[in-house]
Amino acid sequence: MEAHTNITKIDRCSGLSEKEFYNTYVKNSLPVVITDRGDWTTLEKFTPVYFKSNYNHLNRTIDGKTYPLSEIIDLCKSSTPENKAPYPNIYNVDRDFPEYPDDIPKMLYGKSNRLHSRLLPNFIAKRTNQQELFFGGKGCSFPTLHIDYLGVHTQLTQIIGEKDFILYPPNQTPYLYPDKIRSTQSPVNIINPDYDRFPLFKNAVAIKTTLQPGETLFIPAGWWHTTYIHNFNLTYAIDHVNSFNWNFFMDETYIAAKKSHPKLAWTIKVYKVIMGKVFNLKESLLN
Ligand SMILES: [Fe+2]
């Protein structure tokens, strides 16, 4: 994958075709805020009351304490920077809301998403988180600056509240001190940086954007990111793999599979080459 050029702000666009989205943003590894609501005209349905009355059986353990969903929602609503709600509290849509996928609006520019293709075997697709919901409250921020797992792109749609996204392009990596073992994580606290420990961080240039309800942010593979929340918040995230990050995704998947399923892992290498060509052809026909 190639690093992007130097940009100082994130475009906000509407009405892009699949091809324009791919050629302008995906191919150049550039983030973009898509202001079209797409099928998210039903945002109003996904309210705190809806989740509390239908999904209170869902429990989440954060820092050793278990919370039912209604408590998470209440804590997020009363959250302040001094007394923050537990965060992150992530719900996997496929696992936690098994009937929900039919209800979730279609992904913007999802025609090129190989993770959702029937041609991608389950044991490969299931290695990603695919679809998640994040609740949050005022003062919460994602605990680490990170790159998403397995080299996926991510699309995040804001459902409730506003959320700041702080992004660093791949060419800023030398200033971010990637962890030696978990190389997709940075130990730098970007809100209150320790310049004695991380002096090069002074050189890092962030690009910020704020996502409003109904807007979607595309974060290209390999971009560092974290978030900061100003009010009660619900965000939907979906992983995205297309021709741009296919080889990287499949190579990372192979490395992970070699540890868990050494006898099956070789099939990933074969699949990468053969199906990569089929997917490329399919995507070249998108308009
Ligand atoms: Fe992420």
UniProtKB/TrEMBL annotation:
This is Cupin-like domain-containing protein. It comes from the Bacteria. Residues 86-257 form the JmjC domain. PROSITE patterns: JMJC (PS51184). SUPFAM superfamilies: Clavaminate synthase-like. The lineage of its organism: Bacteria, Pseudomonadati, Bacteroidota, Flavobacteriia, Flavobacteriales. InterPro entries: Cupin_8, JmjC_dom. Pfam families: Cupin_8.
